[in-house]
Amino acid sequence: MIQGLLLAAGAGRRMGRPKALVPGWLRSSAEALLVGGCDRVTVVLGAGADEAARLIAAELPGVRWVLAQDWAEGMGASLRAGLAETTADATADAADAVLIHLVDLPDVGPDVVRRILAAGLAAGPAALVRATYGAVPGHPVLLGRDHWAGVIATATGDQGARAYLRGHDVLAVECGDLATGADVDRPRDQP
Question: pLDDT digit string (tens) for 40-89?
Fold first, then answer.
């Protein structure tokens, strides 16, 4: 079972609105996870959460969301909230791994997701796989269940899981032939 975890909590100050509310991004990012092979998707919301939750309910049936109460702290808070929600799922179909994706990567589609999942498939709960673009580390990142507690303990500020990943053997999977992996921070940067 692979859980897609879409981080979409930031205020998007340079964008002029929460990135979860940029037209089309929430939908296309969640669909990239689902079409790419994730069994289910949870979106982590923060800024603009009420409006984003309405969009999810209207456009993405079956996609769950969770609120990162301390979202203003940065990506680390969103990651902790999403992993805590996933960890709390004690059902028989609990996830073995989560694929972490960011809402502000509009050119990262299902083909990238499929490649990362295929690379980590055999590792199961021990999976630790990261997309690279021209050898530059990016997203999505596949975290097997064995790594969740360590990531939750170290995810701070806008660094997310960066410190944890630096301290572990991560399988880098080149995806530069499929996407740029560039995050979009300002309206003029949109493709």
Answer: 999 999 999 999 999 999 999 899 999 999 888 888 889 999 998 888 76
Using left for φ > 0, alpha for ψ between -120 and 50, and beta otherwise, residue 179 falls in: beta
Instruction: Say how many CA atoms lie within 13 Å of 34 toward its Cβ.
Output: 15
All structural domains of the chain, each given as residue ranges with its CATH number in brackets, are 2-189 (3.90.550.10)
β-sheet bridge partners, residue 53? none
Structure letter (DSSP) for residue 22: S
Judge contact between 3 and 42, C-beta under 8 A: yes
SS3 184: coil
What is the per-residue burial (b if ≥16 Cβ within 10 Å, else e) of 65-84?
A: bbbbeebebbbbbbbbbbbe
What DSSP assignment string belongs to 68-107?
Answer: -TTGGG-HHHHHHHHHHHHHT--STT--SEEEEEETT-TT
Q: Which residues contact 8 (CB under 8 A, 6 or more apart)?
A: 18, 19, 20, 25, 26, 29, 43, 44, 45, 46, 52, 78, 102, 103
pTM here is: 0.93
- What single DSSP character describes residue 179? -
How do 171-174 and 128-133 pair as beta strands? parallel
Three-state DSSP class for residue 10: coil
